[in-house]
């Protein structure tokens, strides 16, 4: 009963989240399958899918201004209408050079929707309940994404029904949030970020955010192409995606809690290399069932990397720097996601479908090698550890929900940083040319 009472102020927002992500999760996979059916090459599909992440990055800079100007509900209605109409326009204009700008527009609008949702959740939740509400939000988020893949079974990607279903789901997401009687929150101005300073204090965290984006962007965009080339039917493609997402949902927490109790950079290094090893084994899977098992394990490992990077960042920053630092991490992750479909798609065009797991294995091996290099070169400035929280690529508003007053008190101890030591290590952390 207490949990239900806790969720009462945000239940309309959670319903909107579920409907919105059902539509978004279905659209991302559907476009790849439809483009494959239309004869688009893997390289062209990669370029198209990268447009979403380009829009996502742009949206992180403009969403707050738009919400402050229009208010939460009006902004949500404005951007949801754009997303629903853009989904249908993909069906009207089946041309890669039209789909590319449509994906940019959709990505910009969608991150604004996510910012509306997460800032509203953040404002409605009491400080001591934010962590639990964020956990429920992540369950809804990942559950909707996994369920969305199964909606592919409703009809052929070559038809129009699935596009209509997407538009309906995104439009229905408007209903719960526009019916709410809750007062709309205000979005405060965010402190300016400094990526150069972040690179000085937490280079491994920044590299992990960027390189995990290079892998995850390829997964979201090109896995449907890979599964199709391996002989999976439409339902099977959805199952591959769902299995990886469920693996990410189930294994993030034990991996993260383990990292809370042990040396987090070491845990990250092992997770990266294991994810690379699993990806490298995918081309040798003897059956579809074995490949599904590998995707489950890989999803649990790969989905953990971005939240591990965020936790590693928070280990090394003062509380006043967390919001701006998390925004930089989001941009770096989004930049990696934007490049990933083009790089992976080009490799798949050159060497075939197995180029996708080979690409992902190489990216993770590179990250693992850098993690070992950083650990041998310097000692990270960490005297206390933050709590790991499962997450996916989201808005900067999400991070504020993760830390309740107790967690902030962890950092308020004056001994968390000794200023002289902080300044000394800042120089050591600066990337060298060697």
From TrEMBL:
Record InterPro entries: MFS, MFS_dom, MFS_trans_sf, MFS_YcaD-like
Keyword Aminoacyl-tRNA synthetase set for record: no
Keywords: Membrane, Transmembrane, Transmembrane helix
Residue ranges of every copy of the Major facilitator superfamily (MFS) profile domain listed in the record: 201-434
Pfam family, one: MFS_1
A cellular component term, taken from the record's GO annotations: plasma membrane
Top-level taxon in the UniProt lineage: Bacteria
The keyword Cell membrane appears for this protein: no
Molecular functions (GO terms): transmembrane transporter activity
Transmembrane segments: 12-31, 43-64, 76-98, 104-121, 133-152, 158-177, 198-222, 234-255, 267-285, 291-309, 330-350, 356-373
Name of the protein in question: MFS transporter
Source organism per UniProt: Vreelandella salicampi
């Amino acid at each position: 009963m207490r949990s239900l009472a806790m969720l009462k102020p945000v239940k309309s927002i959670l319903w909107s989240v579920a409907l919105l992500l059902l539509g978004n999760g279905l659209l991302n996979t559907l476009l790849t399958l439809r483009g494959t059916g239309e004869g688009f090459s893997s390289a062209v599909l990669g370029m198209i899918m990268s447009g979403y992440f380009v829009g996502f990055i742009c949206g992180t800079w403009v969403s707050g201004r738009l919400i402050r100007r229009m208010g939460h509900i009006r902004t949500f209605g404005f951007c949801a209408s754009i997303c629903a109409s853009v989904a249908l326009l993909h069906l009207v204009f089946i041309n890669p050079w039209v789909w590319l700008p449509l994906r940019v527009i959709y990505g910009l609008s969608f991150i604004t929707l996510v910012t509306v949702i997460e800032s509203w959740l953040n404002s409605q939740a009491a400080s001591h309940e934010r962590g639990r509400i964020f956990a429920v939000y992540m369950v809804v988020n990942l559950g909707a994404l996994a369920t969305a893949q199964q909606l592919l079974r409703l009809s052929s990607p070559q038809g129009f029904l699935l596009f209509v279903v997407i538009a309906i789901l995104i439009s229905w997401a408007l209903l719960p949030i526009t019916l709410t009687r809750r007062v709309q929150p205000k979005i405060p101005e965010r402190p300016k970020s400094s990526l150069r300073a972040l690179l000085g204090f937490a280079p491994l965290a920044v590299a992990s955010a960027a390189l995990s984006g290079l892998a995850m962007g390829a997964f979201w965009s090109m896995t449907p192409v890979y599964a199709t080339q391996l002989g999976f039917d439409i339902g099977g493609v959805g199952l591959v995606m769902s299995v990886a997402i469920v693996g990410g949902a189930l294994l993030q927490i034990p991996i993260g809690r383990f990292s809370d109790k042990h040396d987090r950079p070491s845990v990250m290094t092992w997770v990266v290399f294991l994810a690379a090893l699993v990806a490298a084994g995918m081309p040798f899977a003897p059956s579809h069932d074995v490949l599904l098992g590998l995707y489950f394990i890989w999803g649990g490992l790969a989905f953990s990397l971005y939240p591990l990077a965020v936790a590693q960042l928070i280990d090394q920053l003062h509380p006043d720097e967390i919001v701006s630092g998390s925004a930089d991490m989001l941009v770096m992750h989004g930049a990696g996601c934007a490049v990933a479909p083009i790089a992976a798609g080009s490799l798949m065009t050159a060497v075939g479908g197995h180029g996708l797991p080979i690409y992902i294995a190489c990216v993770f091996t590179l990250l693992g090698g850098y993690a070992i290099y950083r650990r041998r070169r310097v000692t990270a400035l960490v005297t206390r550890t933050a709590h790991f929280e499962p997450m996916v690529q989201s808005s900067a508003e999400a991070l504020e929900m993760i830390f309740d007053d107790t967690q902030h008190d962890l950092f308020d101890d004056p001994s968390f940083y000794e200023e002289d030591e902080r300044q000394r290590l800042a120089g050591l952390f600066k990337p060298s040319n060697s």
